[in-house]
Protein: type I protein arginine methyltransferase
Amino acid sequence: MEENQKQKQFLVSSVSELTSSSSSLFSKTEPVFARLSLDSGSPELRIGQGAELSDAVVFNVKISQLFKLGPAESLCVSEANKEKSHSRGISIQFRNEEESRAFHCAFEQWKKEVVVQEPLNNGAVSTSKSKFDDKIEASSAKMYFHYYGQLLHQQNMLQDFVRTGTYYSAVIENRADFLDRVVVDVGAGSGILSLFAAQAGAKHVYAIEASEMADYARQLIAGNPSLNDRITVIKGKVEDVELPEKADILISEPMGTLLVNERMLESYVIARDRFLVQNGKMFPGVGRIHMAPFSDEYLYMEIANKATFWQQQNYFGVDLTPLHGSAYQGYFSQPVVDAFDSRLLVAPAVSHVINFSSVKEEDLYEIDVPLRFLSTVSTRIHGLACWFDVLFNGSTVQRWLTTAPGAPTTHWYQLRCVLPQPLYVMPGQEITGRLHLVAHKAQSYTIYLTLSALVGDMLQTSSVKLDLKEPYYRMSQPQAYSAAQDQNPSQLLQSDMQFPSRDDDGSILMQPPSPNELHSL
Structure:
């Protein structure tokens, strides 16, 4: 197959007119090509011989349908329109089943993704909006796909060896789940997970990637000839693309900061509903958000002091104090992304479980988590610490990929929501509250956090509103901790489960879940 931005070309064995004689349309002395192009301004399928495809048979992709007659044979039918009162059909014989499959994918992509220009009454151009476009701002999507279309950012993720190594182990150790199976890689990026699936013996992998990284993925896959004939890269959004067959297994890395940032989990769920066979597997299949209150005087003072600039009453003759309150709130509206010492936690963590195999897309628009903790120390609580993990529930080996404090650091780090007003607690004291996440069109979430603690007869309550899209990337080493908080961190990281044991490659072997957790799944 030859390809550029304006055309895709396939070599075929033969082409026959769908008539009673079914005679071949072209000489057998020269190769026959099927070319999808935009030469006329609208998508066309041109079938002919030679570099210029002389005497080509031309189909308007917009009004044509493609059907499979056999593993390597297809039928293309052009519907009747204003110019032609009758339809036309041709039989296309491909050299093998893989090339037939690749042509079908390309045809459906060309039919669906190429912008069909139809002048409206006002002279504008009509483009059909996908479900993704309806719920995501165009400016956010443009920046998102630009970011992930760059190799330097893909390298950053590939060099997260905890992430990449855990995916590799989860796939290779569960060959039975991939062997001779059809796999869809959702948001394939560089194509690394598709290559892992092919290494595990997948029958065929469809790598779906909407950014320009799809072109790099094709190059990378083509450079691995022992695997490339079983991987098809499809450039487009999972909400829009069409596949020639269902998948036995989905693989993806849809996790963002706090698990849900970037809202790719929704695309993962959409891919499940569109492409996965009933009872098919998802790698990963379960995600958990873990939360625990923390005490960190250094962090709190660092954020609060940022606003002292606005306390100046004579800044070149200007009083800045009217904006101090807004600046103070603004700094606390940024979630902090860094790696922290697990001994800063002051109570055992609670968890919110998302089962990717059963969750509805709409369930991810708004996530509400009631919070209840018992303090283990006497201290000031400065906010809520959060991290996540995901489960690869393989038939042979079950693995967790965790971002927990104390575990090997990943490019996700951990996240902390800092309260503008700390709470005072005593050992054994109950802390209650609510974490409420509301999705917005910038591919992220607004976070509403409230924590309360009763001191005597007085209820202390502190609330904060944060934008997950605009974090403070602190990326410093874990800060010092109070001696009063020097306790076993594994007791605080997991409330219902012990801290997972670590394998040699840094990934996590699954621990038996508690009855409560099994119920939540």
